Each structure stands twice: as C-alpha cells, then as structure tokens.
Amino acid sequence: MAERITGHTELIGLMAYPIRHSSSPAMQNEAFAKLGYDYAYLAFEVGADEIEDAVKAIRTLKMRGSNVSMPNKTLVGKYLDELSPAAELCGAVNTIVNDNGHLTGHITDGIGFMSALKDNDIDVIGKKMTIVGAGGAATAIEIQAALDGVAEITIFNRKDEFWNRAVSTVEKINAKTSCHAVLYDLADLDKLKAEMDDSFIFVNATGVGMKPLESQSVVPDKSYFRPELIVIDVPYSPLETKMRSMAKEVGCKTMNGLGMMLFQGSAAFELWTGEPMPIEHMKEILH
Ligand code: NAD
C-alpha cells in the first residue's frame, strides 16, 4: 500500500451504515492493484442523514465515484445529476460515477446477476423466469432481466411490507419493457408449482436460506423441482442452502449468490475504469 498510494491516487468510496463487515474494499483494491489502476477504495460509515453531504464531498474531493449500500440506495438518487435506465426503474442506486462533476447513478446488482448466469453458460434471454422476492436484490434482478430480454417473469412474494414494491415492479416492467411480468402470493403453493413447472429458471432472491433463516427454504419440498429446471440462490452465506440441496438431489443445475456478488462489483469497477475486473484472478482470491 505504501508503494501504491501517491499524490496522484484518486479515491473511490463505499457509503453505507453499517459497513465495516463489507468485502468490497478488499475486492476492489485487489482488482485495482492487479490491473494497475491508481485508485484507492475505502468504506465510509454514512447514514441516511449524511448521504446528501457525502454526495457533495464526492464533487468537492473530485472522487472518481462511490458504491452506495443500505440505507442509502433508495435515497441517494435525488442528489445525482443522472440515473441509468435500470437505476431509474429500480428506484435505487449502488454505484456513482463522477465525470468532471457530473454524477451518474447506476445499479449493478441486476447486471451482476445476469453476468453470473452468462459465466455459468446459462442463457435465459427469450425464456421464462420464476423468482421469489420483492426487496432490493430481487427488484434489481427483475428489472435487469426484463431490460436484457427475458420474455416472461413470474414474481412470488409474501404479503408483507415488500408486496407493494412488487406490484410497482410488475407495472414498470409491463409498461417500459417488452417482458411480460405477473405477481402471485407465495402462499399460493399450487400456483408456485405450476409456474416453476413452466419455467426455464427459478430464483430465490429473498433472505430465506441466509442467516438467521439458513435452515428454511421458499420451496416446501423437492417435488417442486424437475431435473431440467435451473435453480439459483441469491443468498451466499452459507454457500449451501436447503433449497439448492433439494434441487441437486433431483438433478437440477444450481448456482449460489457468490457469482452475482463478484459480477456486481466487476460492473462497478468497469463503470469507473472502462474495463471489467480480472475475473479469474478474483475467483481465485474469493474461493
Ligand atoms: P430485502 O430486505 O430488501 O428483501 C427481503 C425479501 O425477502 C423480501 O422479498 C421479503 O418479502 C422476503 N422475505 C423475508 N423473510 C421471508 C420469509 N421468511 N419467507 C419468505 N420471504 C421472506 O433484502 P435484499 O437486500 O433484497 O436481500 C435479499 C437476499 O439477497 C439476502 O440474503 C441478501 O444477503 C442477498 N443479496 C445477495 C447479493 C449478491 O450479490 N449475491 C446482493 C444483494 C443481496
């Protein structure tokens, strides 16, 4: 680090609270060093009351940009000059790019998910996806999948505080993209089975499977799976979940959330530098 930081080094931030647990600083700094970019990436504890001032600091300090996480993802957009189409539709930003004082907000979670599929030779374009979830991760995936050309998306969620967000996501997808989206209550298990039977890919984009819900599954039992169905988890801690072990027993191809995590970081790296992360090197570091 002492050799790498000079008077020319530019700063990239990560603004969220809490944030000290994040693996993004290690991941981004490793990639900058590997490809020789003169950037340093640091995490800043910035809460909802401070995000407006933090955005001013991006301009004042002439930072190259920043990542943004909770609670700021849905708050920061109004302080920026421009939003990407996906960030506009999601109503959320996780990456800011500073081009000579002009700040653009992007959301790379959905891009990360779609890139992770491609990296696993899974081609979902023109096909049908069934997905459980209506929170931040799910919305980003649903919007990006629709923008990228997934033909049909069936969303399931509980009737909890996220339900209205799913209603709004379905309306936006149907109004603004060529994808057809529908929403059902996750309690309707017959519908869940029927939609899974008709889908190319099934995605769990809820916190179920991750601590403290690690012993649970959004799919009640393995009769819901057939060997041709591709089964994806967005949670990645623990890496193995009850849902995917049931799917594997049936013979399904499965993927965990690590790829999405890596590729959302790579998409942000590419927005700041113009080239993707050295993915194979990063996989070695992560695994
Ligand atoms: P969120 O709080 O915004 O959304 C939570 C979602 O889970 C909602 O749809 C909610 O209805 C659903 N849910 C919660 N408890 C449930 C239960 N008991 N049964 C059924 N549904 C339930 O969270 P988020 O930020 O969207 O994160 C969701 C998951 O995705 C988390 O596990 C998170 O760690 C993971 N994630 C992974 C990546 C990645 O890069 N792989 C990125 C972001 C989030």
Proportion of β residues?
15-25%
Q: Uncertain regions: pLDDT < 50 for 5+ in a row? A: none
Largest sheet: 6 strands, mixed
Helix/strand-derived category reads alpha/beta
| Spatial arrangement of strands, main beta sheet | 2-1-3-5-6-4
Radius of gyration: 19 Å
State the share of residues found in helices, binned by percent.
Answer: 25-40%
What is the H/E order?
EHEHEEHEEHEHEHEHEEHEHH
Which ligands appear in the coordinates? nicotinamide-adenine-dinucleotide
* Count of beta strands: 12
Using the alpha-carbon principal axes, give the shape. globular
Report the span from N to C terminus. Answer: 23 Å
What is the count of helical runs?
10
Mean pLDDT, all residues: 96
